[in-house]
Write a structure and sequence with these properties.
The chain is an alpha/beta fold. 34% of the residues lie in helices and 13% in strands. The chain is globular.
Length: 389
């Protein structure tokens, strides 16, 4: 669903060379009208330390929120691959290594990690851009026009995945992010190209790391098709190369068969999550990334005007977590901890406004000013329940 999301965690990490004094903890959660606390949960609660501004203080705060309100940390790499270096085993650029070392240092002892990397670009229909001195750089000339099935792409990406697994040592590993987003249907030739890479990377990594869940993430919405059956059929083609059914779901805009004007989770079908888990009932289920708006989503450039509010966001979190427990899910990763109004303004000032970035801007458990939203009370109540499988 998230075509053209070209900034990621590393966009704010590119200059993170030293630690600085931690930011103040955001305000204490307000009390929400909560149901009785659950006795237990099957799943881990994960947060992505995505900063709300382009600063070290913002990054520190994001990690602080994740440390206080989650038992799973998400590291999400969606802005390029060091293709030529990975192909020949050459050392990565010092900036890349400094950022990775910073991430290692920020992970607390015993803290579980979900690592997601990807061979595709934000458009999801071509290979990833180049990550070197900067992220999302133009591909070197010899890499332009290469497809997922190109032998060099497959070899380089396998080497890169091995390196990331060894360096960051995750508990869960996604080797492809939102891989079905741009498929037009189960017969799309792009799927055949992608499966060449998936088969080699998955089978090799699984043989080398039998105890680590290795999987792909799939989309619950697409700009290429509004047909739910077609979207699911595309997902079924890649699931043989995935340990989990892992979904990326933002069901407040692009929802197959629905025209959303109000982001009210009561309008979603009761089986919204269960229908995706049913694609492969023998595989564990996870929400690999999600979010829900607590404010109106207004993008006139795209003809989007969707009402949202904090109460509906809290309702979505309650609906989601109850559904996950019923499905005996493995984990859920919430993508934005605090609204990134300041980062959005910074990017607009530097590069001009790109309204598509509003899609996730107001989905934080904290608003842009750092005030807590009711959804966090729902989340924290589940966090207090023991994990039992």
């Amino acid at each position: 669903m998230k075509a053209y999301r070209s900034f990621s965690l590393l966009a704010a990490l590119v200059f993170t060379l030293v630690a600085c004094e931690a930011a103040a903890t955001p305000s204490t959660p307000i009390v929400y009208n909560l149901p009785p606390p659950p006795e237990s949960r099957s799943f881990l609660l994960g947060l992505n330390p995505f900063p709300h501004d382009f600063s070290l203080d913002a990054l520190d705060e994001a990690f602080e929120i994740a440390g206080n309100h989650a038992d799973l940390l998400l590291y999400h790499f969606d802005s390029g691959v060091p293709w030529p270096e990975a192909l020949v085993g050459k050392a990565y650029h010092p900036v890349v290594m400094e950022n990775l070392e910073d991430l290692v240092s920020r992970r607390k002892p015993g803290q579980k990690l979900y690592l997601a990397i990807t061979p595709n670009a934000p458009e999801r229909n071509q290979i990833a851009l180049y990550n070197e001195a900067e992220e999302s750089m133009e591909l070197p000339p010899e890499w332009r026009g290469k497809t997922f099935s190109d032998p060099d792409v497959v070899s380089a990406y396998l080497n890169h995945a091995r390196f990331m697994l060894d360096f960051l040592k995750p508990d869960y590993f996604a080797y492809g992010i939102e891989v079905t987003c741009d498929f037009t249907g189960p017969q799309d030739p792009l799927i055949d190209e992608f499966l060449v890479l998936a088969e080699e990377v998955y089978t090799t990594l699984k043989a080398e790391n039998p105890d680590i869940p290795i999987f792909l993430t799939i989309c619950t919405g697409s700009f290429q098709t509004d047909d739910l059956d077609s979207l699911m059929a595309s997902a079924e083609r890649v699931l043989p190369y995935s340990d989990y059914v892992g979904i990326s779901t933002y069901p407040y805009w692009v929802v197959p068969g629905m025209k959303i004007k109000e982001a009210n989770p009561a309008d979603l079908p009761d089986h919204w999550f269960a229908q995706w888990a049913a694609l492969a009932p023998d595989k564990p289920f996870a929400i690999t990334e999600t979010g829900y708006p607590a404010e109106d989503l207004l993008m006139p450039e795209h003809g989007v005007k969707i009402k949202g509010n904090a109460a509906w966001q809290a309702d979505y979190v309650a609906f989601m977590l109850e559904s996950l427990n019923a499905l005996d899910a493995e984990f859920i990763a919430w993508f934005i901890p605090r609204d990134y109004d300041q980062l959005y303004d910074f990017l607009t000032e530097q590069y001009g406004e790109f309204q598509f970035y509003k899609t996730w801007r107001d989905t934080g458990f904290y608003d842009g000013a750092g005030s807590v939203r009711p959804a966090l009370s729902v989340w924290d109540q589940w966090l207090g329940a023991p994990v039992e499988k």
